Hints:
Layout: H1 3-16, H2 22-29, H3 33-46, H4 66-79, H5 85-96, H6 102-111, E1 139-146, E2 156-163, E3 169-175, H7 180-194, E4 199-202, H8 223-230, E5 234-237, H9 245-264, H10 270-288, H11 306-309, E6 312-317, E7 323-326, E8 329-333, H12 337-340, E9 346-351, E10 357-361, E11 364-366, E12 368-370, H13 389-424
Parallel strand pairs: 1-4, 4-5
Antiparallel strand pairs: 1-2, 2-3, 6-9, 7-8, 8-12, 9-10, 10-11
Helix pairs in contact: 1-3, 2-3, 5-6
Amino acid sequence: MSVKELDRVQLMTRLAERRLTQRRAAELAGLTERHVRRLYRAFKREGAAALVSRQRGRPSHRQLPAATRERALALVRERYGDFGPTLAHQKLTEEHGLALCVETLRSWMIAAEIWLPRAKRLRRSYPPRERRACRGELIQIDGCEHAWFEDRGPTCTLLVYVDDATGGLMELRFAESESTFDYFAATRRYLETHGKPVAFYSDRLSVFRVLRREPAGGAGLSQFGRAMQDLNIDIICANSPQAKGRVERSHLTLQDRLVKELRLRGIGDMRTGQAYLPEFCADYNRRFARPARHAFDAHRPVHEDLDTILTIQEERRVSTNLTLTHNRILYVIDDTPAHRRLRGHRVTVHEQADGTVTIRHAGRVLPHRAHAKDTARITPGAVVEHKRLAATLQWITERQRARDLQRLANRNRTLRQKQRIRTAAGLPA
């Protein structure tokens, strides 16, 4: 019975016990007194079953003809067997002129076992993967955006490095977003502390891999991938979040424990939080890390120049005027006899996190100067990763505010100049 029918049974019971008048029952049920008397007579004659709708279980008078149902299902089986209800409904309507609702077709396809609803589909299983045998053999890396400082500071991203063999935290770093320079800084601290691992295991973020199937130019590597190649460290991209489950599960623990530890210490900014992270890592590893199956440490010593490798590197061709362009900035190489031989040759431009640019050729630094600097960092229609969207919007907001203030100052300066000219000419202000 429906809720409405159960309410009517209660009203009829109170009428039978003379605890309610028919007029009051009609008001409560929203019916006329005549209909209440009719229901009461049926209730006394047949009991509660008399209040159940007689139409229940019977086919609707508004349902589509059975021939329409059979034709639609026959067309779906014949031509659209692997189509979903929405796309199949579109084709049946446009190609075959069948006028029916998409939900009606969905129920027909489910009843005919042509379409399996999402709730009844078997979930994909992810068999557990055995841990690597040695420490430093595989390092899972990922970024987690969260309100780490709650309402005491801004929302930021925590870059997490987890050893696959032990499950221990190898490196943590607060950053505004998952950018290449932030991963460079975190990786540099990792290399200086532990050495070079065999491989990094990451997701498919554009920092780690080139998303285009056919890169327009270059070696087809991202800047981070190129740097790891120079350091002889491999990057493996996981096909699903479950594949790098150790670092994903560590996010849940960090969002619980790290947030509360920061709260207890009253830490509300990234700089102070970064100073506390080594202490937290040591305590975390003492509690949760497990020994590797083999005592061998796969880390290798670092002999490369990290200051040169961990930079944004792009090749440019030197013009006949000893100039080149990088990020819409014109750089002029010092005019010397040795540098004139570089006309038409390709040089490498190194950009650091602070914006410092170094131009190198065959390992030699070329003195240069910036000629026409353009401060616009984001072009209209620029592609921005979703993980960097918040930081990008914040930068855009600050840039627009600065531009508005500059325009207002220029406007006020122009008005004051006009007023001085009119005052000097003896004209009214």
